[in-house]
Structure formats: C-alpha cells, structure tokens
Amino acid sequence: MSKNSYRHVLKYTSLFGSVQGLSIVVGLVRNKITALFLAPMGMGLLSIFSSALNFVSTSTNLGIPFGSVKRLAEVFENGNDDDRRHIVCVVRTWSLVTGLFGMILCAVLGPFLSKWLFDLDDRHSFYFFLLAPVVLMNAVTGGESAVLKGARNLGVLARIQINTVVAALVVAVPFYYFMGIRGIVPVLVSVAFFSMIFTLFHSYRLFPPEWKYGKDFIAGGKSIIDIGIVFVITGIVATGAEVYIRSYLKVNGDLDAVGLYSAGYMMVVTYGGMIFSAMDTDYYPRLSSVCNDFAAMNIMANRQMEVSMLLVSPMLVILIISLPVVIPLLFSSRFSAVIPMAQVAVFSMFFKAMSLPLAYISLVKSDMIAYLIMEILFSVVMVWLVMFFYGLWGLWGAGIALSASHLFELAVIYLFVFFKYHYVLSRNVLRYIAVFLPMTVIAYIITFIDCCLWYYWVSGTLVSIAGVMVSFFVLKKKLKSVDNIRVGS
After folding, report:
1. According to the model, what pLDDT value does residue 291 have?
2. Would you list the DSSP string of 164-230?
3. N or C: which end of the chain has fewer CB within 10 A?
4. Gap between the Cα atoms of 459 and 469, Å rounded
5. 353 with 412: CB under 8 angstroms?
6. Are the C-beta atoms of residues 151 and 96 closer than 8 Å to each other?
7. Domain range for residue 231?
8. What is the pTM of this model?
9. CA-CA distance, 434 to 440, in Å (whole number)?
C-alpha cells in the first residue's frame, strides 16, 4: 500500500482518531466527575497548573519529543542496527538530562510562577514544588514516545494512549471525591507517573534501556537539538500564550471564568481536534520521506488535508448543534454559560484541518526560521484577539477570537508555502471547502434558534445527516477508486 494513498491516510488518521475518540469517551467521564467535584473554580485551578507545567516542560525539553522524530525516522529507515541503538540511546539520555533540569527549575521558580499566575499571590509556591517531578516524567515520556514514532510502532502508541487515559480516570475519581480541590496536585503527579510507566514498559521491551554519555552524548544530540531548539522557542511562545490568556481571565474575571474558558477550549480544540492526532505520528514521518520532491509533497499534503476535512467537518457540524445538551451533560449545568463560546469556536477546527498539513511542510524542509516566525505571529495575534474580544463580549468574544486567530494562521501559512514551495490547493480541497464551510455556517445560524424548540433539533439533525452522508459517500468513492487502480495494475 502506497504511503501516499488515500487508504493509507484514512487508515492511520482513523486509527488515531478512533483511539483519541475512545480516550475522549473515558476522558468525558473523568471531566464530568471533575466538574461535579471541583466546579468551575476548581477546573480553573486545574487549568492553570496544567498550563504552567506544560510551559516549564516545553521550555526545558529542547524540543526533543518532536524534534527527534525526523532524525529517528531517517535512521530507522536507512541505518543499521548499531545506528538505531545509538540514536535511541542519545534521545533517552538527552530526555533524562533535560527532564532533571526542568524539574529543578520548576521547584526553584515556584514562587515566581505563583505570583505571575495568581496576581502576585505566592501562596501556591509549595504546589509547584510538589508538581516539579511531573516535568521530569513528561520529558522521559516524550523521549520514549519519539522513539516509538520514529520506529513506526504506531499500534504500541495507540495502546499507550488508551491505557493512560483509563488510568487517569481511575486515579482522578477517588482523589477528587475525597479531597476536592486538594486532590488536583496528586492527580497531576499520578497521571504523569502512569503515562511514563506505560510508555517505558512498551519502549524498553522493543529497545532495551541504554544511555550515552561523554562525546557520543554531545555529538549525537547536536543534530536533534539544532531542530528541537526551534520547537522550544515556539513551544514557549504557544504555551506562554495559553498561560497568559488564563492569567488574564483570572485577573480580569475570576477562576470561574478560567474554568469556563478551559471547558469550552477542551470541548472544541481538544475533543474537536482528535482527528489531528495522526499528524505528527504518521503524516510527519511520511512527509519527511518525500521532502525533496515538490510534486509528491504537494500531493501528500493535499490528500492529508482532504481526509482531515472529510472526517472532521461532519463532526464539527454535529458538535455545534449538540453542545446545548453535551456541555451540561458532560460537565454540569453551571458550565452552560460557555455554550455560545464553544459553538463559535468550532470554526477554528475547520481552519486547523487545512492549516496543519501545510504547517508541516516548512518543518520537513527545515525552514525553521519561517516556522518560528509564523508560530510566534499566530500566538501574539491569538492573545491580542482574546483580550480584545473578551473585553467586548466576554466568553463569546473569546470564542470568536479563537476562530479568527486560526483563520489568520491559515492565511499566513498558505501564502508562505504557496510562494516558497509552490504549493497549490487541489480541486478536491476547494470542493470540500465549498460544501462543508457553508454547511458549518448553516449549523451555527441554527444555534440562534431557541434549542428548546422542536425545529431547532429538526433542522440541526438534517444538516448533521447531510454532512455525514456527503463525507461517507466521498470517502467510499475514493477508496473504491484506489481498489480499482490496484486491480487494473
């Protein structure tokens, strides 16, 4: 099966989308319990701690979890067994060293993080000291996951994701039930621990533990760090933007506002983006393999975009219509205020389905400066738009800002790859935009009808069925044409 075929793209996009979907189902149960026991204020505190940990992890891991994947994939594709063992050892050693550094830094910077995130209040400093081991565990997990991605052990990665999310549910319920908000820190530490253990178990079975020190350690890591340092900067900017937004909402609103925003963001960006989970696991290594062939790269990017749009667009239509029921059901009635924000923010995932396959082009071409500039520009614009529109229309304005910033990102990335790499949208992509974007707009217009009225649900159901049917028949036709080509050949 060609790595460039629709069947391959659909197979692995569906595989990790399904794994993500199952993870989301389990996660929804956990979030329901979290919302009931912690309320919006507790959700806001959980969001701030999680964002801060992501910020420290991203700032100190030298981009190894992502930057090493390309190098690993190249060695596993073309190298011998000694080369493979060497690069695996280098990645593991650098992950451990950067993790230890990040853990120490998180503990030392606890008072600063507390004052920055909690409006000059340093009472949360001790919590950051307790959370510091999470940074180490995240670094180790990220390095081992990169090894599995580079070695193309996709089934193992899928099992790890499922095991981790189930463990997170089992851990969260008793802590939140018995400890309430005080259980947030133990849950974050425990989930990071189980994620690391599951990843190490599978990775060590395939690649026995070994580390590199001395000259081999430095020389072997140079090629990884040269790429990874760009991800460090972009990661700092991106996670810093998210931390700043939540801090801004905390100062200009309250922890309830942070919790509501996080719930809306989770519903749309996290859950709506489950189709994109295959991008860095499957699409990025495949695109890297054809990075010197502009025509093949153009075809691969378009096919990834087509499949992403066909899978995600009907889901977004259904999400827009069902949010008035889904959010109170999955969280609680106290989260109903975030429904308008989540509905308008759904458009951000439509734009992301188009922009993400294009963003990887600059990565595989090692055009790191351009990638860095685009990511920084997007983060700055997103923060400014959230602050501006939240000031005008509250949480609904924040939803508008998310969609507008992703549209801006799509425009910037497309113009860059068009002029730099002569990328051109395929006719199929243009057709799908012409069909699914108006369909999504219609679904959003329906939300202005009172959801208690019967014709809200009738019209919403009809447009949802239309989206699913169009997507189903197009995908069926594409797979049938691929089979016919194979038979004819």
Report:
1. 79
2. HHHHHHHHHHHHHHHHGGGGHHHHHHHHHHHHHHHHHHHHHHHS------HHHHHHHHHHHHHHHHH
3. C
4. 15
5. no
6. no
7. 6-488
8. 0.78
9. 11
